């Protein structure tokens, strides 16, 4: 179906007059070229000679990639969904090359800068906010160094940026079924990379219902009326999700008896039990949990305020088995341990979540990628950059430590409010 701009949706769009051979106005091409140069320059300046970095989760991604390489697709249910391991194989030309993966991730990071600009430009219809957001995004040091780390964040962030741009475009083309299908495909690939992105699906589905219902459907032909309706848009968005994500979950369920994309939610929840304020005050019925965490205190990384789940989960499963718990699914058993600890000490558990939330808003750090391996983290002499670059990273870290809380609140509020405001102004209605 051909994309047709709805005149009443976003008036005075940015791509109208004075377009060149590529259908883009000269100022837009200049902005994109400038940002592409800036993004590549930032990567060359700060992470150009940095080696691929391996941290805690890197090994599990590589393990799934090796499984696919040697035994075929799909892999069994593990800690990691198949999206990023497939990316590693694609970046390596059918094999595993950490250098190739880090190079492609740098290019994806630069592409995400352009997508951020285009999404903000599409949304706000102003050049200033779009350039400002893209420039800030370009120089976020943790994102730059994450691009050289064998982690899925860079790929997931690319899908997030692309999906936000596709969603913003739906404001001008609300009834384009290929557009909604593209958005669903992008989100599906993102979920296969980082399952947490499934949290965005209800918001995107609501946008499909809202935007495609913001202008009157054509009368007369029943098929045309249906294809132009909000339900067709919702269906076009959901099809890729059902095929890719639903298909993978169904396969795992039928083959392995586990109806999920990956393990991990239960395991990672053990980190919240790993705070001394919680595990040291558990009741006698969970004394075995306390003993396991206490036995691993000396192995705890000094920069973490908790005992990491990777240190305790095997011992916890053994003790849970001795206590008569079902340990056939370790991830589920881990979640059960966390819920039991939270029920036993709800106040301590709530305080841990509140402290974590406050650290998220107030503490900004650069860890991944700045060191080649997590064992060297914090050792200035083993940083992967020279003294001058390390000083630049620290300056950027200080700047973003001050800016990030305000930017996060602004980003969180501005996108949905502006999006709904423009949908409302399109025809003076949303769902009616």
Q: How would you describe what is shown here?
A:
- The chain has helices at residues 26-47, 58-71, 83-91, 98-124, 127-138, 141-146, 153-169, 177-193, 201-212, 222-227, 230-256, 265-273, 276-279, 287-295, 309-322, 330-344, 346-362, 387-427.
- It is an all-alpha fold.
- It folds into two domains: 26-252 and 387-427, no CATH class; 265-365, no CATH class.
- α2 (58-71) packs across α3 (83-91).
- 38% of the residues are buried.
Large-scale geometry:
globular
Tally of contiguous helical segments: 18
Number of strands: 0
* Secondary structure category: mainly alpha
* Helix content bin: 55-70%
Largest sheet: none
| H and E string | HHHHHHHHHHHHHHHHHH
Strand content: under 5%
Rg of Cα set = 24 Å
The count of domains is 2
Our measurement of the CA-to-CA distance between the termini, rounded to an integer number of angstroms, reads 24 Å
The low-confidence runs, each spanning 5 or more residues with pLDDT under 50, are 5-18, 427-432
Average pLDDT reading: 84
Protein topology:
Layout (H helix, E strand, L loop, with lengths): L25 H22 L10 H14 L11 H9 L6 H27 L2 H12 L2 H6 L6 H17 L7 H17 L7 H12 L9 H6 L2 H27 L8 H9 L2 H4 L7 H9 L13 H14 L7 H15 L1 H17 L24 H41 L5
Helix pairs in contact: 1-4, 1-5, 2-3, 3-4, 4-5, 4-7, 7-8, 8-11, 9-11, 12-16, 14-15, 16-17
């Amino acid at each position: 179906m051909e994309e047709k701009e709805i005149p009443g949706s976003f008036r005075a769009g940015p791509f109208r007059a004075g377009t060149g051979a590529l259908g883009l106005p000269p100022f837009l091409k200049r902005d994109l070229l400038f940002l592409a140069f800036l993004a590549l320059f930032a990567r060359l300046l700060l992470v150009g000679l940095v080696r691929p970095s391996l941290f805690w989760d890197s090994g599990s991604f590589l393990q799934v990639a090796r499984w696919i390489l040697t035994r075929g697709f799909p892999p069994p249910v593990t800690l990691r969904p198949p999206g990023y391991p497939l990316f590693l194989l694609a970046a390596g030309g059918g094999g595993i090359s950490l250098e190739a993966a880090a190079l492609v991730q740098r290019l994806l990071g630069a592409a995400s800068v352009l997508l951020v600009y285009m999404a903000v430009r599409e949304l706000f219809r102003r050049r200033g906010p779009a350039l400002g957001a893209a420039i800030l995004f370009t120089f976020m040091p943790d994102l730059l160094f994450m691009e050289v780390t064998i982690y899925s964040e860079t790929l997931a962030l690319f899908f997030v940026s692309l999906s936000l741009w596709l969603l913003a475009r739906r404001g001008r083309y609300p009834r384009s079924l290929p557009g909604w299908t593209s958005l669903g495909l992008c989100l599906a690939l993102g979920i296969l990379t980082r399952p947490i992105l499934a949290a965005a699906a209800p918001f995107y589905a609501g946008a499909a219902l809202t935007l495609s219902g913001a202008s009157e459907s054509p009368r007369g032909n029943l098929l045309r009326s249906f294809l132009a309706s909000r339900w067709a848009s919702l269906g076009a968005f959901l099809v890729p999700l059902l095929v890719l994500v639903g298909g993978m979950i169904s396969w795992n369920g039928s083959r392995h008896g586990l109806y999920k994309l990956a393990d991990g939610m239960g395991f990672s929840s053990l980190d919240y039990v790993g705070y001394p304020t919680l595990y040291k005050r558990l009741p006698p019925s969970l004394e075995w949990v306390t003993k396991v965490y206490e036995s691993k205190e000396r192995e705890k990384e000094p920069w973490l305020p908790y005992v990491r789940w990777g240190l305790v989960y095997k011992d916890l499963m053994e003790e849970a088995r001795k206590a008569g718990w079902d340990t056939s699914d370790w991830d589920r058993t881990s979640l059960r341990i966390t819920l039991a600890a939270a029920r036993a000490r709800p106040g301590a558990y709530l305080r841990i979540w509140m402290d974590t939330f406050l650290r998220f808003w107030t503490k900004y750090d650069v860890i991944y990628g700045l060191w080649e391996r997590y064992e060297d983290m914090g050792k200035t002499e083993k940083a992967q950059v020279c003294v001058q670059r390390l000083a630049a990273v620290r300056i950027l870290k200080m700047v973003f430590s001050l800016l990030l809380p305000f930017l996060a609140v602004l980003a969180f509020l501005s996108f949905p409010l502006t999006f709904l405001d423009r949908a409302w102004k399109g025809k003076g209605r949303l769902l009616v």
